[in-house]
Amino acid sequence: MKIDLRKYELGKSYTFEEDVDFSSHEFSSSYRIRKITSCHVNVTLLQYEYITTLTLFIKGEVIGACSYTNEDVVVPYKVKEIMTFSAEEGVGDYLLEDDLIDLDPYLFSLIDNAVPLNIVKKGAKLPSSGTGYEVLTEEEYLKKKKEVKDSRWDALDNLDI
Known about the structure:
This protein is of the alpha+beta class. It has one domain (2-126). It is 16% helix and 40% strand. It has helices at residues 104-114, 138-147, 154-157; strands spanning 2-4, 13-19, 33-47, 51-65, 72-86, 94-95, 100-102, 129-130, 133-134. The strands form three sheets. Strands 2-3-4-5-6 form a five-stranded mixed beta sheet. A two-stranded antiparallel ribbon has the order 1-7. Strands 8-9 form a two-stranded antiparallel sheet. The model has no long low-confidence stretch (mean pLDDT 86).
């Protein structure tokens, strides 16, 4: 979504909306978000002489990876954000280098922040253990950590200090 600020008069408020397509964006297979299926953005733009304010209302759905089963999960999101752009350094939140604002990287970042870090599919249960791994509570982990001794440090036990 690109906004050309030359089209808008100073001091007037403009509202517009658009569906943004993230289908060409590539996601790493180990990333918690696998795909952004929909993104609808409502923008309110207000521009003054040195500062441009955008109020964004973003909603849509992503396909995420379940933390327990690694299966696909549909996760809805909603975001409200106010962004200020300015051509002068230190005036707004973001530096405006020309009269064109490309919102896609900002939208992606906002969506990424809106999606939970730990996505769990409804009804999924934490696995207890399997081949090459086991799931422990924090107390079990700390107890097991005390029991395991690192042989590399044995020589230090014999030192007389």
